[in-house]
């Protein structure tokens, strides 16, 4: 078992066969839309793809660590929105400086991640149930805090609008994609080259054997959910910088896009195998798909159908891959 974990540990940051297949699929998908629609061939379309990718990408980076343990997090999208709503509400009602608003937004996400970790690691509640409950709690809190009112973040030309330049240029090019790449590199190194990453992969591969080897598996489960929470908060900041106006109840479905990206990229739903590089490729596939479908004339309900099929195919492929490994 030790050799198997070391092998996975060393190869986490590399492109494996599934990542190469996903990369090929991304290129083919992009070229298909590029060929089928002349209006797809513009810098604005590329900007739209990046817009769709970076806040979902933050969610996907975080939940990669959770899925690597064999867990799941269904609270991603709702906590993203609740974090942003809380930060924006405090900004308007207590005249907080924007830097503090950003910190609070990230902290709210991190605290929800900690709550998920305690429920799963300490109280032994099944991850699906625990995070579904957290999703509902977060949605309710967001509505209560804001009194079901829209929260508006500062515009770029306002004194506190500087935060938008972190994620977008003045001509609306989403520089947030570069922030995403930075965090992907950092978290890829953590997953592939540190004790935290090694133990997270080990407990996902064989939790009981990892526990018997002296590792505090509950601690590393908790850490994985806290990491996910941090990125939910960061995604909340990114979302606020992109859309400015946020409504309670938004964000449902973001978790499916993020989890689909993770699975497409080669992270196994049963745990023990993970790739941040693969996750980024998977997120880009989802972003290209969702951006490109309207360009070939498909209505929104068809877009939802195709996205659902992609998720099902990714899950089935993961199930059969796991059976083949067994």
TrEMBL record:
- Major subcellular site: membrane
UniProt-listed InterPro entries: ABC_transp_permease (IPR001851)
GO terms under cellular component:
plasma membrane
Entry keywords, A to Z:
Cell membrane, Membrane, Transmembrane, Transmembrane helix
Q: Where in the cell is it found?
A: Cell membrane
Look up and give the membrane topology term: Multi-pass membrane protein
State which residue ranges cross the membrane. Answer: 20-40, 46-67, 98-121, 173-192, 222-246, 258-289, 301-320
**Which GO molecular function entries does the Swiss-Prot or TrEMBL record give?**
transmembrane transporter activity
What name is this protein filed under?
A: ABC transporter permease
Its taxonomic placement starts with: Bacteria, Bacillati, Bacillota, Bacilli, Bacillales
